[in-house]
Amino acid sequence: MKKIIALVVALVLTLSLTAALADTIKIGVPDDTTNEARALQLLADNGVIQLKEGAGETATKADVIADNIEIVEVQAELLPNQLPDLDYAIINSNFVLDALAAGIQINDALLVEVEEKYLPRANVIAVKGDNIDAPLTKALVAAATSQQVKEFIEKTYAGAVLSVVENPTDGYDPDVDYDALAGQTIIVAATAAPHAQVLEVVKEILAAKNINLEIQVFSGYTEENPAVDAGDAYANYFQHQPYLDEYVAQTGGNVVSVAIVHTEPMGLYGGKQKDLSALGK
Question: What pTM value is reported for the model?
Answer without folding.
Answer: 0.77
